[in-house]
Amino acid sequence: MSAAQKSGNRESVIVRTSIIGIAANLLLAGFKAAVGLISHSIAVVLDAVNNLTDAISSIVTIVGARLAARKPDKNHPLGHGRIEYLSAMVVAALVIYAGITALVESVKKIISPEPADYSVWSLVIIAAAVITKVLLGRYVKAQGGKVNSSSLIASGQDALSDAVLSFSVLVSALIYFLTGVSLEAYVGVVIAVFIIKAGYEILSDTLADILGRRPSQELTDEIKRTILEESEAQGAYDLILHNYGPDRVVGSVHVEVPENMTALEIDRMSRRISEKVYEKHGVALAAVGVYAIRSDEKTAALRKAVTDRVMAHPEVLQIHGFYYDEKTNTINFDMIIDYDVNDRQRLYEEIMQELQADCPGYTIQALMDIDT
User: Which residues pair with 255 in a beta bridge?
Assistant: First the structure.
């Protein structure tokens, strides 16, 4: 299946699943609103509002998916995939607003309580809503996982959380029905807090995508393993992935290769790597850079000495790209220092001083690389 076909299939799955979610949530919102208004239950009414918010969120998800699927143009050569993140932020804002509104109304009911009046049929409807939400949540989450849609996964998880909240409403209704003790306003506060929390998590997750989060270790390890399937590739480092939407990832990488490889051999290897990585992982490598590797005894001895000295500092995670230029008597390499170190620059300078003392007469050029 081509990239365009995958993108089109992904969009259709998102739209179809969202439409199912909209229909289910609108039905649930209608039934719950009717039950809540008839029985004077603020908890049930707020649960209905929560379902209505979910329906609106699904509509926003559809619009976002449609806009994100637009073809690249002159001003947006890498497509419009990040629109999905903006639509997710709109969803988060709606969810947070609904939660704050629910919290205010619940507090009002605590201050000025109004007796509820549940019937057997109202309890049956609430119980059916719990079962429906569980089934809907599992379905939506599964579909989101299939097409790598954070919006659908979040919606599915939200539906499962809603099922828990609806169950708490059912329990409070049963308690009132059997004992006359009203807990629904307090349950409303719990629902409101959960709604606000869900909105905050969606917003936080989306902002992380927009700012550029670290890719999963599993994905980076898989890509590096694919690269190292090439016999000439002796190491893969500096893998950087740029996310232009859930299914649009562009990256670059450095590969260690023998210094005697010709430009043509490197070019052919780079093309093979790019094709394999895109085919297996859906990542477009815009650049495959190289580190030249020497295999003579002097270079090996220098590399071991430098590695031992640098890695003696537990804050250093890795060194790579080592090369000794005999003509200029220069040692080049990159080192990765843990981000948890308070003053990375100070540690870098300390290591450089130690290396210079260990290797007098050599010019040492080390890049403090980023931990990707």
Answer: 236, 290
